[in-house]
Amino acid sequence: MTSAPPPGCAGRRVRGRTGRPRSPETDRAILDATRAALVELGWGKLTLGDVAARAGVAKTTLYRRWAGKNELVVDAVAALFDEHLELPDRGSLQADVEGVVLQFAALLERPEAKTALMAVVSESTRDDALRARIRSAIVDRQKTLVLLGRRRAQARGELPFEESPAAAARDADLIFDVIAGAVVHRALVSGERVDAEWTGAFVALLLFGLAGRTAT
Amino acid sequence: MTSAPPPGCAGRRVRGRTGRPRSPETDRAILDATRAALVELGWGKLTLGDVAARAGVAKTTLYRRWAGKNELVVDAVAALFDEHLELPDRGSLQADVEGVVLQFAALLERPEAKTALMAVVSESTRDDALRARIRSAIVDRQKTLVLLGRRRAQARGELPFEESPAAAARDADLIFDVIAGAVVHRALVSGERVDAEWTGAFVALLLFGLAGRTAT
Amino acid sequence: MTSAPPPGCAGRRVRGRTGRPRSPETDRAILDATRAALVELGWGKLTLGDVAARAGVAKTTLYRRWAGKNELVVDAVAALFDEHLELPDRGSLQADVEGVVLQFAALLERPEAKTALMAVVSESTRDDALRARIRSAIVDRQKTLVLLGRRRAQARGELPFEESPAAAARDADLIFDVIAGAVVHRALVSGERVDAEWTGAFVALLLFGLAGRTAT
Amino acid sequence: MTSAPPPGCAGRRVRGRTGRPRSPETDRAILDATRAALVELGWGKLTLGDVAARAGVAKTTLYRRWAGKNELVVDAVAALFDEHLELPDRGSLQADVEGVVLQFAALLERPEAKTALMAVVSESTRDDALRARIRSAIVDRQKTLVLLGRRRAQARGELPFEESPAAAARDADLIFDVIAGAVVHRALVSGERVDAEWTGAFVALLLFGLAGRTAT
DNA sequence: ACATAAACGAGACGGTACGTCTTGTCTTTAT
DNA sequence: ATAAAGACAAGACGTACCGTCTCGTTTATGT
């Protein structure tokens, strides 16, 4: 999960060849400014006029490329996920899961990710286009980690192969929601740190279950 | 989780006995109007002026009792949680968990809960007072369900007693984050329905773990 | 123009004899507070809540006695005119007029009089009741000075007796408007000081006219 | 006093050449709306939001050009003075003065002038910038009429030439305060009409003085 | 002495306007 | 054609006062 494909900013249509071309540096400057503003102001106080000023860019330019605050922030945050999530092989399913949990937790400690993630999710509950954008820019990218981890565990013999592709997909979705959900809830709703101790306890629960732990 | 203690709206200080007392009907009218406005407009478009108008109340009156949008919405949503979450004894740990998961999912399908919950969580990442308010008004109330469920399961012999109060508290927190997190993530981030099938699979995973399921 | 009749605050009706009587000190405290607030804040920023607070009195008490800002300020300012305008006999018409002009100018240098006078006049252009109140509380009191001065000048032989009472009244009104108008305009509109030099030139003009001055 | 120089609205600074220029029609629309609102509502009830709505303009646009109610109203009223005061040669000093007095009186019968003039004068007692604005926008323009009238009277031999420029200026100021003050006081404070009869008596007094009238 | 009734303080209340801010569009000049 | 600057209409923001109201308390009578 390293080389990001073009951020796919919504307003960008395939253009004719005439006219002054859009500066690609401008894209970067705006996204950087967005992240910086998120850190300082949070979602609620973030304004597009302020982002434009920070980026040294006219508001017009900003609106030419993104439809609004939501779209801009999704793109700005998506880049963070691309840069910071990966799944090196740590030799066992348990170690792999613990690794990705801690990585995800580190990401969620960044103020720009923390604030923005919940905010855009909140907005997406009333905006289908936004939900789709979040799914493709953020959720689906994370989900590949689950698929990769399972494939490795299956190769090691830690997990059985699935009976059908449909069951496999359902199961991956479930595991993804449990892992991502637990980490997000711990970090943002409960407001507690996701440290090694909690991670260990969580992965134990995930692998062996409430009942399984009892038996152990 | 039925009889709600007074909603504890923050602005209400212990006052002297002089002056006209605040009308308690006004409190209710404002909270009802807030929920109605959330359904229609969502968090982003919600306006305190609009809430005041719906409640047939002056903006001043509203600001006299709540410091802002966040505080108001937390109280308005907290009431929903109080009214709609309970844990009737269904005879087994598995049935109890499935019951509460479905109940929680039904709550999260209400548009006012959906939008508002994530929005205030997002804001709480930059506002400690708000986080405390959410914790006491929403999170802690839900957490009692976990404690109650565990006590029952222990009474039935499904779960062992904890070694220490500290360990018990840590474990309850973990279980709570896993259940609530998974349901919220499924419903709001992944945007999929939390139906009986998913619930069954999730509870199986929770009870027996990835490894345990394999063995079964 | 010394012993003021009761300030005649509008709201005071003849009451039954039971019930707690209104405190006369409260009247004074409110009028004093009004003048003090006028000095500090001016007409535009003056608020009745602030006056009440300064007087150590509840807003209700204030509204029980005066209908609003205008009425209150007229009464507060009228007292100033009562206290500060009089016409000692200085031996000649010229000296008498110069004396009253300087006295009036001194009054208009008080910030509370300055601001309040023009403000209530402005309001009175759209409020007949207020105009009547100003006339009886302020204008008529000043006008008696003109009548007194003319009587003295006639006794000295400086001015002839009028042919008819109607002509006498018209002439007194004219002289009053010229004197008061010139002083007010100089002091408040032109914003220049009314000093001995200007007063001398003005009274010379008033007595001898543009043409008469030329001849002299 | 016909062709008005640019109204000189305070907020207008010399700007760079980029950016959308301010619409000059907007200026006119706002000033017209201000006068209309003054007629209907008077100074006290006049609302900048209402003015903006009448002018079909956003409040922001209004505040971009004027600092507040006072400044706006001064400019709106100044235009009236520019349009309605002039001094055609009527052949004699007496006729000239009577003409300008009646003209000024007609102006002061307009409700927008009546209310607004005293109100801004009242505010100007606490605001030096406002006083300066009134002086340059209204007072100084009127004063030129006095200068013009005197020059004509001197040319006709009705008045002598002044000994020094300083004395000339002092004298013009005095005459201006007497004429304007008397008319304003008669019209607004005493609340009586300035008709031909009063005007005749006033101009006679002005030309010949209290003593001079007696001799005649 | 004891009721009656108004005055009084405190402060909630429904309104209205404030002056500022942000949004997304539009219009200009400059590159 | 794109960029920067900034005007613009729209409308929400949170605050301040308005004038009214509802309380509980106090202070004069009139019995």
UniProtKB/TrEMBL annotation, chains A, B, C, D:
It comes from the Bacteria. Keywords: DNA-binding, Transcription, Transcription regulation. The keyword Methyltransferase does not apply. The keyword Transcription regulation applies. Residues 1-26 are annotated as: Disordered. It comes from Streptomyces stramineus. Residues 47-66 bind DNA. Residues 24-84 form the HTH tetR-type domain. Gene3D superfamilies: Homeodomain-like, Tetracycline Repressor, domain 2. InterPro entries: Homeodomain-like_sf (IPR009057), HTH-type_TetR-like_transc_reg (IPR050109), HTH_TetR (IPR001647), Tet_transcr_reg_TetR-rel_C_sf (IPR036271), TetR_C (IPR011075). This is TetR/AcrR family transcriptional regulator. SUPFAM superfamilies: Homeodomain-like, Tetracyclin repressor-like, C-terminal domain.
